[in-house]
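Hey team,

Filing this mostly as a record. A colleague (T.K.) asked me to run one chain through the structure pipeline before their review meeting, and I want the input and output archived in the tracker in case anyone asks later how it was produced. No errors, nothing strange. Just documentation.

Input sequence:
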Amino acid sequence: MSSSTTTERPAVTPFIESNDLLGDAAALRRRMREEGYLFFRDLLPRDQVLDLRRRTLELCAEERWLREGSELMDGLTDHEPIAEGQEAWRPVYAKVQALEAFHRLKLDAGVHRLMEGLFEEEVFALPMTIARMAFPRDNQRGTQPHQDWLYVGGSTEIISCWGPLGDVPVEVGGLKLLRGSHKAGFLAPRPAPGPGGNIVWVDPDLEWVQSDYRAGDLLLFKALTVHASADNYTSDRMRLSIDFRYAGRSHTITDGWMLPHFNWLGEPFTWDTLDKTWRDSPVSRYWEKLGPIKTKPHERFGAG
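Output structure:
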């Protein structure tokens, strides 16, 4: 059981669920244009999501990040928070990135069909996939309000997808969105602590939305939609998640997104190292079988 200091739940407005619109691509496109996001229950295969959770937590347990004697799948921790990018974080993250199951999840056929309806053309899952392994009570290093386009570049129509690796109730955090914020266009960032290192202006007239997540849920949002990680103040659970992105084949992406996450550190964050044990899998280098992909250098707009 969690040693929570309070049972009070944060007051939040839940996402609009869009499962009822599955199969109606035109309605989904309209909702995405209006709201800046789409939220689906049980879109990803729950068994695959939970298998990836188990594999990830086994790697965390090997480093003694989890509470001794606790149930593995609970993800309980009494370890001092380790921030993304720190030396102690890198070996565990490299092992997560080396899991074939980690990269396979984004290629789910149901997600692919959904994306084809949204883009109205053939689509492409960007090779870079990101995992978050967030410790509780680490509010100084949570992801600040930001727009993905600053980091993704390329087409502003690229769609980001965020999925919890396990059930994530509101009190454990998860991703929250500023509903309708995509209509403001690109927002100039300024420096801030946490992953990404930037924050953007938050329109006080717009509403933050967030729901309890279940394993298998998937949140889709536009590259200009402002979003952030919610606080995990009161639980003892690590929050595990995966995020990936899709583009239409006629769209341009930046060349860095053809590489693994944290590729700028060099080994072991290279494809030759990460996929060496599953090189025969159709997941390995799947993009090489798709034909030409439009890429360009990433022109970064730094914080001012």
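Quick notes for T.K.: The first helix runs from residue 25 to 35. Residues 178 and 208 are 4 Å apart (CA to CA).
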